[in-house]
Design a protein that fits this description.
Helix content is 68%, strand content 7%. It is built from 13 helices and 4 strands.
Length: 359
Amino acid sequence: MVVLDLLAAIAAASVAGAALFLAHGRHGDDRGGPRAELVRYMGVAALAALACSLANVIEASGGGTFSAAVGNATNVVTVGLAWAGARRLNSRRAIGAVTTGAAGILMLAVTFVVPLDDATLIKTAGLAIFAALAAAEFARRPLSELSGASVLMLTLSIFGAYNLYRVVLGVTAGMSSTLWEHTASTQITTILSALAIVAMGYGSVRLGRELDDDPAPGTRAHDRRNLRRTAGDMLREHGSMNVLIVRIPEIDLIRAAHRSERADEMITVLVDAAHEALPDAFAGVPARDTVFVLRDASIPRTEAESEVRRAFAGHMPLIDYTDVPDLVFEHHTLSDVHDVSLLMESRRLRPGTGAVPHG
């Protein structure tokens, strides 16, 4: 039965970690900012919880002191990283990660030199302390004003109180008492830990939706953010706009025949040509080898295409390219920023194809 409960904890840790990383986006986007900090700390905490669950399964199957030591250390690190991440998001001194790492190493060593029951009580005391610190940090402004922070604070408070109860009960009544078996056993603790992981994952994803990305310039995430912002400005002014999507059909051949940098240079030239041909438009690369141009509908579509072709051809000698690749155009008339996001997402998942809103 204990093994089944531990497997439930593994599933909870896996779901929490996957939700955090999926909510953040793809690694290649090179994002930064508060949301990236949240994913970094809480994501590693979810992985530590997963490692703890695996170690506990091995220990329950007769794995011995080593698996118990790994489980105790990663358990402490899991809650400690929640505290460290909250401190980071509150722009406080970055001592959380170092303190958490030191506590994990100390817990690993302690498990080898004291009886396992005593090591369990020491670990439980560490969990109670870190949970209390993390709950207090999530209750501190500015984090406390964001959605999801209250879920994290409540979860950590309950988890910390339960572990404090386990410490008091273990010291006073002993870990072999009937009261311990009925209210603080390993099985009960595993079930509550799995529920806490799910709640922490849920709260972290809600909190992540409130935090900002700060993608590095030159990345696709940076272009997507700028395209969304520009689209919002244009829609407030005009009510609707035209999204011109431009692609180079033989870009993969160029990449294969020359090198990846040559293909990227070609896309950069296409963006510059779009800006030159349509001065009042905004261009970016939200997906691989795909250029989005946001413009009003004052210039006819055929004329816009001709101007972009002409400007693109004029840039070829500047990069010592003798041929002029063909261009493929798509036009979409949109009236909502969400539709722009959907259009970019469809091309990010499958460049050049996909279901898109049409106007």
